Structure formats: structure tokens, C-alpha cells
């Protein structure tokens, strides 16, 4: 009887390793499948971006100059022009754009805005926010922002 007990235990030990390997394989397959599914689900749709036509430039709207408080008692005098599209039925009101500019530039360091790289970075951010604010029913009413005055004191 002792031989029968030992033979019954041997296959169980080998089967435990196989079960562990199978469980690991299933978990890895689920992780890889989930990662691939997430990537395909959330990746940008390049076909939709290619089908969207470029807006046609319309009138350029010149806004009044504003003075914005910077950090350490410095000031930024900023004058913007907005490149409207032909989708804009009338000249867009620039108050939203000026409000966005004030929010973006208020309390920034003078040294930060003096570098060309940071100024271009903030201009890109400003343009993106303004274009988004002036988009109605998937029609862009503004397609660009120009600095006509950018003076720091």
C-alpha cells in the first residue's frame, strides 16, 4: 500500500507546475490583449483628421492692447490679432480671446517670457485655447493668433 500512496502523489506535484504555468500564460495573454485593445481604442483617429478640411482664412480681427501683471511687479503689454475663418458669419468678439490671454499670462515670470522657446510655447497654448473657445458646431471661427505687440517692462 505504501507504493500506491507514493504513486498517487507524484502526478499531483507535476500537475501543480503545469497549472501554475497555464495560469501565468492566461494572465499574460489577458494583459497583452487588454493593452492592445486599449491602444486601439484610444489611439487618435488619423483618418478623421485627414478628412477634415482646412479652414479658409477670412478677415483679421485686431484687438485692443491690454496690460497684464506679471510676477515681481513686471508688466506685459500684449496686443493680439485673430485670424478668422470664412465660417465666421460676422467679426468675432475678441473679449473671450483677451480673457484667455490674461488667464494664461498673469503672474508669469518675466524671465520665463523673455526666452523665445517659452514665448512660442505659450503662444501655441494660447492659440489652441482660443481656437477651441471659438469653435461652434465643429466649425472653427478662429484659425490663428498673431502678436502685434509683446512688450515686457
Encode the helix/strand succession as letters: HHEEEHHHEEE
Report mean pLDDT, rounded to a whole number: 84
Q: What's the number of structural domains?
A: 2
CATH-assigned fold name of the largest domain: Tetrahydropterin Synthase, Chain A
CATH architecture of the largest domain: 2-Layer Sandwich
Would you state the CATH class of the largest domain? Alpha Beta
Low-confidence spans: pLDDT under 50, at least 5 residues? none
Anisotropy-based shape: elongated
Strand portion, in percent? 15-25%
State the helicity in percent bands: 40-55%
In whole angstroms, the N-to-C terminal distance is 98 Å
Number of helices: 5
Using the CA coordinates, give the radius of gyration.
30 Å
- Structural class call reads alpha+beta
The total beta strand count reads 6
* Largest sheet geometry: 4 strands, antiparallel
